[in-house]
Specification:
With about 675 residues, the chain is α/β, with parallel strands linked by helices. Helix content is about 30%, strand content about 20%. β16 and β17 (about 420-425) form a beta hairpin. Bound molecules: FE3-S4 cluster.
Length: about 675
């Protein structure tokens, strides 16, 4: 959708360096090769579109199987001092290499690709002071699990987390990446580590040694100033201190990444809470934890077990973060060590981390899994709400897979070897943070775009039901919106997921028309007291799906308005929640209040986001009213818009509606969208 929206801009080439990565659509079924082939077969048209549009518009294209975006970005693109935006919340992973890397919605990405400025709310800054250094079973994952416990899942909202203190340099660049990756679990806008020698090591190992001299020349800009270290309370809005030397390995979950405890407390909690004690599957890797260092520490644990004739008591799945990681651990033996205790290596893609885990045997059952991933809300991994998903470091996940039990603590509990003798796993030895003989790049799956892609055809089958090229929206015709019907009045929480539900609809996220059949299906309509239904005011038909009513109005060229409650559009930044109303004929969305990102998305699509000057006016809007929004040619920043409400009994009343449109945003409304406005400026 980001690319489809970018295409509306009419630009020939992206305005900033851009790459496209295919990692979410590969389903984990059997193992790497056949799973990847299945994905290529099932989603071929999507990949053809992504590859051809990348070539057409000057974007680098990483084919399916080349890796998970955040690992590839760490290996190829992130560098100290860079600003990166990515269409995935775990973009923050790049902070491990000193980038300010921020996850955004597709609409924001499309703006940036088209050369529009990118806006973000000015963040608070949380300082996390790290002291000491880790040893034994403690790993970088434990730093972020501990921080999630301290700050909770909303503790990073509208904040940048900045790590500082002497402990930072004791953690490898990829370990820092793991910590930053899960800043997304705290809701952080971004998180970042200061430049140090560990970053230089990783830059050199990934073929970017030339950046080291530049980073060192500008090191004063890439580390906190001395006075920050001395008096951090003067510079940070909040400070958390973690002593790495005393930090215990942690496990968090199920179902929330801040439900954490030290491993030593887990067994008692398993009994108390009745979690299924048996670990059914341990999963390691993903964008969060599949570095060379991680894989070597996992392999160390695996080798200890194999030497005593012990295999994993649970299933064991490995998701390499990139082709480079996969090829290197195959060459250096970590993969073989894990396979020797029963591991299956999956494709270099997201797979079980994003619900792409074909696991029919677990459907409807309560079971426990341990992953080294980052998210663990219900159904996240296998679509089964009964799966209790715990998160830990990869080496701890492997150890718990060997023990086969949530109550197994490798720091204190023995395993039993093939001869019936007890033995203790030793903490994994310090692993090299980069391969001693260099990375093996594996199969090259990168497609460099041509200098001039203007003769490349963007491949979208007109009969596709998954992809649809978007035409630019029509500009405003200069007239007030007169006597438009009320499509729906949502009551209570109306998230972007209520406006544009996901689940099976995700399949259509590149085909706006098909996807729009989901519009408002998750929203509670105050008029029907049902979810997703309303009344067609033209035909009088009762209780129809709301998108069908909108399509009926739109077919007759009739615009409509939707009424919303407080904080309308909260939740993820899903741009479809603005695009579908735009496609199906909305003129304005009028609410008691908006969630900021959704309000901005509506503006970008040329819609009017308006709020009641008096919130109790929400009650005045009746199902069979007609509304006129008048004086739009004089739309001015800070001045209310008047709505004339005609009730069915013939009475009229006038309401004042507020808006937050500034002058450029009013120009977006007039042009039909932000993209249209930009195109008009370029053509001028
Ligand atoms: Fe990362 Fe993919 Fe999971 S991007 S968070 S491995 S879904």
């Amino acid at each position: 959708m980001a690319i489809l929206q970018f295409m509306q801009s009419g630009r020939d080439r992206v305005a900033v360096p851009t790459t496209v990565h295919c990692d979410h659509l590969v389903q984990a079924r059997v193992g790497a090769d056949s799973d990847l082939q299945d994905a290529l077969n099932e989603s071929n048209e999507v990949y053809q579109f992504l590859e051809s549009s990348s070539r057409r518009y000057g974007m680098g294209f990483w084919r399916p199987g080349s890796g998970i975006i955040h690992q590839v970005v760490l290996e190829k693109y992130a560098f100290p001092g860079s600003l990166i935006i990515g269409t995935d919340s775990h973009t923050v992973n790049g902070g491990g290499l000193g980038s300010l890397a921020i996850g955004v919605g597709g609409a924001d990405a499309a703006d940036v690709m088209a050369g529009l400025p990118w806006e973000v709310r000015y963040p608070r800054i949380i300082g996390v002071k790290l002291t000491g250094s880790m040893s034994g079973w403690t790993a970088p994952k434990d730093v972020i699990i501990k921080l999630a416990y301290e700050l909770t899942v909303s503790g990073g909202t509208n904040a940048i987390i900045e790590y500082f203190g002497p402990g930072t340099a004791s953690i490898s660049a990829t370990g820092k990446g793991t910590i930053c990756n899960m800043g997304a679990e705290l809701g952080a806008t971004g998180d970042v580590f200061p430049y140090d020698e560990r970053m230089a090591t990783y830059l050199r190992a990934t073929g970017r040694g030339d950046l080291v001299a530049i980073a060192e020349e500008y090191v004063h800009l890439l580390q906190s100033d001395p006075e920050v270290e001395q008096q951090p309370e003067q510079f940070y809005d909040q400070i958390v201190e973690i002593d790495l030397s005393t930090l215990e390995p942690h496990v968090t979950g199920p179902h929330s990444p801040d439900r954490a405890r030290p491993i030593s407390e887990l067994a008692a909690e398993v009994q108390r809470e009745g979690f299924p004690e048996r670990v059914s599957v341990a999963l390691v890797g993903s964008c969060t934890n599949s570095s060379y260092e991680d894989m070597e520490r996992c392999a160390d644990v695996a080798r200890q077990a194999a030497a005593r004739g012990v295999s994993a008591a649970s299933g064991l799945l490995v998701t390499p973060g990139s082709e480079q990681v996969r090829a290197t651990i195959e060459r250096d033996g970590q993969q073989a060590a894990l396979e020797a205790i029963g591991a299956t290596v999956l494709a270099n893609a997201c797979g079980p981390c994003i619900g792409q885990w074909n696991r029919p045997e677990a459907r409807g059952t309560e079971n426990s899994i341990v992953t080294s991933y980052n998210r663990n809300f219900p159904s996240r991994n296998d679509g089964n709400a009964g799966t209790m998903n715990f998160i830990a470091s990869p080496e701890l996940a492997v150890a718990m897979g060997l023990g086969g039990s949530l109550a197994f603590n490798p720091l204190t509990d023995p395993l039993v070897d093939a001869n019936g003798n007890e033995f203790m796993l030793q903490p994994p030895t310090a692993a090299p943070e980069v391969p001693p003989t260099g990375f093996d790049p594996g199969v090259d799956m990168y497609v460099e775009p041509p200098e001039d892609g203007s003769d490349v055809d963007v491949r979208v089958d007109p009969s596709s039901n998954r992809l649809q090229v978007l035409d630019p929206w029509a500009p405003w015709d200069g007239n007030d919106f007169e006597d438009v019907p009320i499509l729906v009045k949502t009551e209570g929480k109306t998230t972007t997921d209520s406006i544009s539900p996901a689940g099976p609809w995700l399949r259509f996220r590149g085909h706006l028309n098909n996807l729009s059949d989901n519009m408002f299906l998750g929203a509670n309509n105050a008029y029907t007291d049902e979810t997703g239904t309303g009344k067609n005011q033209l035909s009088g038909e009762e209780i129809m799906p709301i998108p069908e009513i909108a399509r009926a109005y739109s077919a007759q060229g009739i615009r409509w308005v939707a009424i919303g409650d407080e904080n309308y559009g909260e939740g993820s930044s899903r741009e479809h929640a603005a695009l579908s109303p735009r496609m199906l004929g909305a003129a304005a969305i009028i609410t008691r209040s908006f969630a900021r990102i959704h309000e901005s998305n509506l503006k970008k699509q040329g819609l009017l986001p308006l709020t009641f000057e008096d919130p109790s006016d929400w009650d005045r809007i009746l199902e069979d009213d007609r509304m006129s929004l008048v004086g739009l040619s004089d739309l001015t920043p800070g001045q209310p818009v008047q709505a004339v409400l005609k009730h069915a009994d013939g009475s009229e009343e006038t309401l004042n509606l507020r808006h937050t449109l500034n002058d450029p945003q009013i120009a977006w409304f007039r042009a039909g969208s932000a993209m249209n406005h930009m195109k008009n400026l370029e053509g001028a």
